[in-house]
Fold Glycosyltransferase family 4 protein.
Amino acid sequence: MKILVVCSDFPFPADHGGRVDTWGRIKVLAELGWKIQLIVCGKQRPSEADANAVMAYVEEMKFCDRRSRLADLLHAIPMQAQSRNELKHVDIKDDYDYVLLEGDYVYPILSNPKIRHDSVILRVHNDEAVYFKALARSTKNVIHKMYYRMESSKFARLQKKMLEKVDKYLFISNKEFESFQRHNPSAKSLFLPPPVTEDTFRSSTFQSKHVVFIGSLFMPNNREAIQWYLAHIHPLMLKEPDYKFIVAGNSRNQSLSWLEQYDLTNVILHDTPKSLDDIYKSGYLFVNPMQNGAGVKLKTIEAIQNGLPVISTSIGYEGTGLIDNEHIMVADKPEEFYGKIKLLFDNPQAAKALLESSQTYIRKHYNHKEVLKGYINSLNTSYQMKQVL
């Protein structure tokens, strides 16, 4: 069987949440025996090494340019989608059993005459209307705030257009899936957890007193999370012997001057590290102090896979299915957040038990391959029944 995967960003290296999810799914589809062709409409072409890594799993790749123009701001379609308008014209030669859209940004592909709408499956990485509204709350830049609000309104309208053309949805967030299913019971929708493989589970030694945060440093909601921690939690943590706050992520060469207003004593910053392995290994626990966001925060799941128990705000763990005080610790007030870090610092056995419980949950409930296989099989059964009737 053949599947066309359409991406708004090249999926490799898997160095942020969206790529982690997309790249993992491409590998799962290949393991299931699917013949995969990939279309990418983004700003940058991959290096030869990155392209070769992907070609080990796909039969063919095509690229089209993302063209952002100021005039796109005036269009009814969100700029993130309108700038990928070349997808309407990309040459598609083969017929596919399914076309997998990796997010709303690639909406223009639905206007390509070679795409059959009854073959389309949408992977919902975020409720983009909610996500961009959250970005507007996170940023302090007035122009950015206006842009995010405009995109939020446009995505709300786009989601209605999408429903007219697409009836198959795979949600990364259990919370967003349940909401969508209530309002659209006739759609063939399902919660598909992010890809998790057995060989990625690790465990901390719980020796160092390092608190870790990993996330894209150019995103306003991640910046806001770090700033909240530095303002409210970090000063209290400085009393702890051997404590360090480890921050890592891709800045996309943007200035990190927004950090300078805080006390950076015992803060270690890794800007665009080539590998996160040693950073995870050095950690005692992971914090996700997100104040605004939507969808599943894959940083929470990745931290658990990589051997760190997680303390999070309510926003930072929503949609994961994890349970407070059983798989994860949740706190929204600074004094409670600090208290839970202190609790795990003082009790390594409790930290280890929390990690093991969360890893057991993910192993059981995040079987991406089986859920995806079952979903596609159910679609094939439905299709065969229609043919018989």
User: Anything to note?
Assistant: The domain at 2-195+367-388 is CATH 3.40.50.2000 (Rossmann fold). The two ends are 23 Å apart (CA to CA). Residues 382-389 have pLDDT under 50 and may be disordered. The chain has 14 helices and 13 strands.
